[in-house]
Amino acid sequence: MSESRALVVVDVQPTFCEGGALPVAGGNAVAHAIAEYTASHRDRYALVVTTQDWHIEPGRHFATPPEEPDFVDTWPPHGVAGTAEAELHPALADLAPDASVRKGQYAAAYSGFEGTDDEGRTLAELLEGVDAVDVVGLAESHCVKETALDAVRAGMSVRVLSDLTAPVTPEQGETARAQLRSAGVEIATSR
Ligand SMILES: [Zn+2]
C-alpha cells in the first residue's frame, strides 16, 4: 500500500509577514517559496490543507491596552477575522487547497488541529486516511510546531520542511526544532 501524504500550510497570512500586525522575519519569502513548491510538487500530496488564525474575540490572546503584549501568552491584535491581512497570503492565490481550516475565533489556538473548515470538519477529520503529513508555514516556533506535534499525537508520520517555514526568533526556532525532533518529527527540506 502506498503512503498517503498531506501538505498542511499553516497560517501563511499577511498578518504574520513583513508589513503585517505580527510579522515574522522572512514571512513573505516563505509564502512565495511555498507557492513555488506546491506548484511543482502538488502530485506528491493526496491533500493540501491550509490553516488561518481567524480571531473574532480571542480574549486574553490579545493584549488589552495599556497592558503590553508579553509575546508568550498575549500578543498585539493580529489575524482579525474579516480583515485583508487575515486572508491567505496573495502569493498562495493559485494554491487551490482541498480544504481550508480557520482557528482561534474565541480563544488562542496555535495548532491547526483546533480549527474547522466552513462545513465544521476538524483538521483530524479532513486528514482521515492520511498517514503522513508535511507541515510548512508560519511561524515555525509556534503554530507550525503545535500543528506538527498534534499530527504526531494523531498517529501520523510528520515532517517539517524547514526551508518553507520561519520562526519568530532564531532561538525559538532552535528550541522548537529540538522539541519536534524529540517528539519524532523529521526536520527535512523541500529539496
Ligand atoms: Zn493568534
TrEMBL record:
Annotated keywords: Hydrolase, Metal-binding, Pyridine nucleotide biosynthesis
Domain Isochorismatase-like: start-end pairs: 6-190
Associated pathway: Cofactor biosynthesis; nicotinate biosynthesis; nicotinate from nicotinamide: step 1/1
Enzyme Commission no: 3.5.1.19
PANTHER family: LD05707P, PYRAZINAMIDASE/NICOTINAMIDASE
UniProt record similarity statement: Belongs to the isochorismatase family.
UniProt-recorded name of the protein: nicotinamidase
